Amino acid sequence: MPENSCHAPTVVTCTAPVNIAVIKYWGKRDEELILPINSSLSVTLHQDQLKTTTTVACSRNFQEDRIWLNGKEEDINQPRLQSCLREIRRLARKRRSNEDTTGDVGILSQKVHICSVNNFPTAAGLASSAAGYACLVYTLAQLFGVEGELSGVARQGSGSACRSMYGGFVQWKMGERPDGKDSLAEQVEPESHWPELRVLVLVVSAERKPVGSTSGMQTSVETSRLLKHRADSVVPERMEEMISAIRRRDFAAFGELTMKDSNQFHATCLDTHPPIFYLNDVSRRVINLVHRYNRHYGETRVAYTFDAGPNAVIYTLQDHVKEFVQVVHHFFPPETKVGEFLKGLSVGSTSLPEELKKAIGMEPMPKGINYIISTKVGPGPCVIENPGLHLLGPDGMPKKSA
Amino acid sequence: MPENSCHAPTVVTCTAPVNIAVIKYWGKRDEELILPINSSLSVTLHQDQLKTTTTVACSRNFQEDRIWLNGKEEDINQPRLQSCLREIRRLARKRRSNEDTTGDVGILSQKVHICSVNNFPTAAGLASSAAGYACLVYTLAQLFGVEGELSGVARQGSGSACRSMYGGFVQWKMGERPDGKDSLAEQVEPESHWPELRVLVLVVSAERKPVGSTSGMQTSVETSRLLKHRADSVVPERMEEMISAIRRRDFAAFGELTMKDSNQFHATCLDTHPPIFYLNDVSRRVINLVHRYNRHYGETRVAYTFDAGPNAVIYTLQDHVKEFVQVVHHFFPPETKVGEFLKGLSVGSTSLPEELKKAIGMEPMPKGINYIISTKVGPGPCVIENPGLHLLGPDGMPKKSA
């Protein structure tokens, strides 16, 4: 833990990943503590392509806690931000009193400045709150010297943030306790477990902002009979099946269950009153495309999943990624070439067999997909050692570039 | 029952209505007998706007059973057609042996010619099989002098056809017997019960033919966990609620439950693997429009329901129909005037309050809806006495106009 004896702020910078659920989280049993009605499971995406970077500084000169998100100062008094700050400070105080070290209690009475940016456009419609809260909690913990289980704190910022506290394949066990102490994330397998697994984020052009997930899931819990049945009776066995498929690296089982669970989540949104729609006509075309592609090959080579928006996330294996990118490019012809259409990990090029195009047999839909981000499974949050990468300057204010 | 002593064919012509379910039928427990996994409930639409007309002729001169649908000869050997013909002939034989009348047994050994037309374009995407099979069974029964319960025969042509055997508000009780003898339609209230109730069919322009309902519901039964829960645990209480709402003429209760059940049906389609989509972006806009319209007035004035296709059927009350038609015309501006946009019962005109347009606050979507058919609750099948309206001529062949 860094120390400051002079007036210069103590500064820590970390990064944290985005995660994409394959068994979906939808619905809280406790709004305050953010306790879910079912367990969920996600894949952590690689930070080379998608990450949040957060710098936290503290100094006795700071008058108040402040936060800047993507270059804009935001209200630090949001209840969920306050929960995370309060919890981390509580854990830091607890740790110090246990260790009976009194020398650095000062830092806990200091105010913090927080600055956070995403390396992906907000317009991409990717849920950034999971990476954001995971990064905030991880960075605060570094600053205050808090170690050990932190997913329970991240969870209180944004439910799915708890899963971004680990790399690889991560489950969030719903827990049973009313105080939420057992509602924590846990790594199922590390990022090295399944090196062939690849991820494509298909960024769909959406007309407007859909219903937010916080209010959406609240309405679902209140009105959807099917959601209750899903949480009580369907998800428990799906969690076991999914963990087993991942352990065995069984792509067909993993992919089929991923698609079924995405569709069931969206089904419960439609069973909500009034109904919530996250999938649009482009999303539905992607779904049809994937099923026709797999049917052509007589095996599950590609699987889709959709969160609370129209973007598709595709899971596939290294051997098939190149062809599937071409398929997407063919059936959603962009204005740009494949090179500009595809961001992130390069995939190499290939030409499409005519019989594949014919078997899919869909009318191409120009500009339905803006671009693809190509990535893979990645590690959990990291500390950035290079002080040149801090987002806050020596004055504790955001650097111009941040 | 008409008789023929010479060689001229015996001819009967009847009409039967379309019905639109408010508690949906989706899924069979017996494919052969067409026995459903849950009860359902529908409103019979008025035949002035939507009907099937069927003429059946029999003659000792006919060499074989034949059928013409909408001007085109079709295969009489379809299993479902054969089920209906066989059942009606069996009932006729049974009745005659009971009555010990032997004089007219001859008619039963004669072949039939069947000619059937709809007064609405097939392109409208309205399920015509319910009206079609109801009309076929009703007409055959007239010809052969069969009386009494016929919905069990119509059910074996097309499940929902059993509900078109009655006017007004009709439930199809799923029954329990393996032989289906108790899986019958029953009138809940006659068409005169709720004279203020009005129906608007919003014909949406669809790109292509969706998955057929027979194969769709089969896949749903095999793969959707949510469908099973719906059928077992949700529909039984909804049937009671719906019957009570109709008896009380409580539009808010009727409308809310109608919308919820439509959405739950489409949710189970989405939970099917691979998923089935019947709603498109226009359907979803209609759904949002209805909820915003109702929210503006702080009460449920309008309700939607969708079958296995993108067309919306709107239930509302006489007092609101005029304004809602204008709302649809405003937010889905057609190329034509309101006059041509609206077919069927006239509704009168009105101007839209600016604050209503603002409250709905949607971007108008030109040509999303082709036209509206305005209708109301109507009676069950009828016999057409005027021989000029027979679809088959004295030679037993379709008249040119049919």
TrEMBL record, chains A, B:
Location of the Diphosphomevalonate decarboxylase-like N-terminal domain: 16-185
Enzyme superclass (EC): lyase
SUPFAM superfamilies in the cross-refs: GHMP Kinase, C-terminal domain, Ribosomal protein S5 domain 2-like
Record-linked Pfam families: MDD_C (PF18376), MVD-like_N (PF22700)
Keyword S-adenosyl-L-methionine: no
EC number per UniProt: 4.1.1.33
Catalytic activity: (R)-5-diphosphomevalonate + ATP = isopentenyl diphosphate + ADP + phosphate + CO2
Gene3D superfamilies assigned: 3.30.230.10, GHMP kinase, C-terminal domain
InterPro entries per the UniProt record, alphabetical: GHMP_kinase_C_sf, Mev_decarb, Mev_diP_decarb, MVD-like_N, Mvd1_C, Ribosomal_Su5_D2-typ_SF, Ribsml_uS5_D2-typ_fold_subgr
Keyword entries, A-Z: ATP-binding, Cholesterol biosynthesis, Cholesterol metabolism, Lipid biosynthesis, Lipid metabolism, Lyase, Nucleotide-binding, Steroid biosynthesis, Steroid metabolism, Sterol biosynthesis, Sterol metabolism
Pathway(s) where this gene product acts: Steroid biosynthesis; cholesterol biosynthesis
Entry's Gene Ontology molecular function annotations: ATP binding; diphosphomevalonate decarboxylase activity
Gene Ontology biological process terms, A to Z: cholesterol biosynthetic process; isopentenyl diphosphate biosynthetic process, mevalonate pathway
Mvd1 C-terminal domain sequence ranges: 199-384
The keyword DNA repair is assigned to this record: no
Gene Ontology, cellular component aspect: cytosol
Family affiliation: Belongs to the diphosphomevalonate decarboxylase family.
Described function: Catalyzes the ATP dependent decarboxylation of (R)-5-diphosphomevalonate to form isopentenyl diphosphate (IPP). Functions in the mevalonate (MVA) pathway leading to isopentenyl diphosphate (IPP), a key precursor for the biosynthesis of isoprenoids and sterol synthesis.
Protein name per the record: Diphosphomevalonate decarboxylase
Record organism: Chanos chanos (Milkfish)
